[in-house]
Structures are given as structure tokens and as C-alpha cells.
Amino acid sequence: MDMILGMTGLFLAAVAAGALNAVAGGGSLISFPALVAFGQPPILANATNTAALWPGTLSSAVAYSRDTKIYRDLLVTLLIPSLIGGFLGALALVSTPPELFDAIVPFLVLLATLLFAFRDPFTRWLRLGNAEEKVGTLGRVWGFLFQLFVATYGGYFGAGMGILMLGSLSVMGLRDIHRMNGLKTILVTLVNVIAFVYFAINGLVVWRLAPLMAAGAIIGGYAGARAAKRVDPHYIRIFVIAVGLVVSVWLFFRQ
After folding, report:
1. What is the value of pTM for the model shown?
2. Following CA atoms 90, 222, 63, 209 in sequence, which dihedral angle do they give, to the nearest 10 degrees?
3. What is the rounded CA–CA span in Å between residue 150 and residue 167?
4. How crowded is residue 246: how many other Cβ atoms within 10 Å of its Cβ?
5. Which among 106, 176, 216, 218 could bridge 14 via Cys, Cβ 3.0 to 4.6 Å?
6. Kindly report the CA angle at 118 between 63 and 121, in degrees rounded to 5?
7. Neighbours of 154 (CB within 10 A)
8. How far apart, in Å, are the Cα atoms of 99 and each of 67, 112, 195, 251?
């Protein structure tokens, strides 16, 4: 019975994470702690979470496909740093001693939560008052370099990656949040796929859990993207921030 309840909880956590990633970001603040609470060591939980969530962001990307058609050339610019960064981040995780990752993961969760909480002021500050949607050469150079950093962080620890990407896209000159979310889901999927393959090769994915959570993430990711334009993100953000802070405190005291 406990196993059934635990697996059900992981599935529902993945559904919620997939939906949150599509609507506002921060889904890993739900699914990663659920895996740790289920008894998985943090490194295995992180790798399994990556394996579980990329199908959800892929389903969101499909739902957002109409919003991203006009940015195909910009997408090409950001694909290469996403590939390189995802691999570098996964390599760093595999090379990190488990005890070190256990020590820093509460800080990573707290950082992701704070990024999520202050996303709007962060984005407004980075826009520097420019209301026109235009991506110039300087914006593309910035986007390439910052995407390399974000993808490396995402390959190492995915929580908060989408929030950083939204900030970067804003600096590049994008303004339409739905188009930005569409690009973000494609890039997040790419980073997570690269990291997932590397984690799988190195035996870090818990295969008895990943497919179940992937199914939940697909359902949540597609439904969340379809509902994103109708849902008030304010209440969702409050919920995610509260969960992130509680999880951070729990992880600090768990050590």
C-alpha cells in the first residue's frame, strides 16, 4: 500500500511539474523533492527528474508551436549553446561527489525559488525600459553567451533554468510572453535531453520511476500549455514559491 501511494504521489507530482513548467516555470521544485522524499539520493533524484520532465516540456513545445514559428532563425542561434551547456552541466554532475551535491542542493533549490519569486522585477530590470520587440546583433550575442551559462546550470540542476531563460530572452528583445514560453520549452527540452542521455549512459536514472513520471509530465505539460493563456499565474506562483521555501528548509534540516 505504501508503495502504491508513493508511486501515485510521484505521478501527481510529475503532472503538477509538467503543468507548472508550461505555465510559469519552477516545476522541478515539485518533482525533485518528491523523488527525494520517496527515498532517492539527491544525485539520482536529479537525474531521474531530468529524465522524467523532458517529455513534458516537449509536449508543451508542441502546444506552443504556433507561437514560435516566427522565431525559427533565433532558435537556431540558441541551439548550439544549449547542446554544449547541457552536456557540460551533466558532465559536472556526474563528476560531483555525492556528499558535495547533498551539501549544495538546498542552496540550489533556494536559488531557484528566489529566481522564481523575483522573476518579474528581474525581467523588468533587464528590459531597461525598452517596450519594442526587436532582436538585434548585440541581443543575439548576449543570448548565445548567456544561454551557454543557463544550459550548463540546467544540465547540472534543472530547477530555475526556465526562469533564467525567460530573463535572457527578454534582454535579447522579446516581449510576447507566450512566444517566449514557446522558445523556452524547446530549449529546456533540448538541454534536458542531452543531460538525460549522459545520465542514462552513466547509470544515474532510476528506470522504475522515470517512465511513470514522464507520463505524468506529458499530461501536465500539454494541458498546462493549452491552459496558460486562461490561467492567472499569480496564484500558481504563490504556490510554487511557498513549496520551494518549505522544501529548502526541509533539505537544510535533512542533512
Report:
1. 0.81
2. 30
3. 10
4. 13
5. 216
6. 95
7. 30
8. 43, 20, 21, 13
> CA-CA distance, 120 to 104, in Å (whole number)?
26
Grid cell in block for residue 159:
530547477
Query: How far is residue 255's CA from residue 236's CA, in Å, rounded to a whole number?
Result: 29
Question: CB-based burial of residue 135 (10 Å sphere; 0-12 exposed, 13-18 middle, 19+ buried)?
Answer: middle
Number of separate domains in the chain: 1
Question: Which DSSP string do the residues of 14-43 spell out, in sequence order?
Answer: HHHHHHHHHHTS-THHHHHHHHHHTT--HH
Domain limits for position 39: 2-254
Identify the pLDDT of residue 164.
77
Give the span between the Cα atoms of 232 and 196, in whole angstroms. Answer: 32
Whether 43 shows a pLDDT value over 50: the answer reads yes
* Nearest partner of 31 among 42, 16, 19, judged by Cα: 16
Please give the angle made by the CA atoms of 52, 45 and 221, to the nearest 5 degrees.
25
**In the chain, count of helices (H) and strands (E)?**
12, 0
User: Is the pLDDT at 130 greater than 80, yes or no?
Assistant: no
State whether the Cα torsion 185-190-193-195 is positive or negative.
negative
Q: Which residue has the higher pLDDT, 140 or 82?
A: 82
Largest CA distance in the chain: 58
Residue 125, C-alpha cell as written in the block: 530590470
Half-sphere exposure of 11 (CA within 13 A, CB side): 11
Tell me the pLDDT band of 122, cut-offs 50, 70 and 90: low
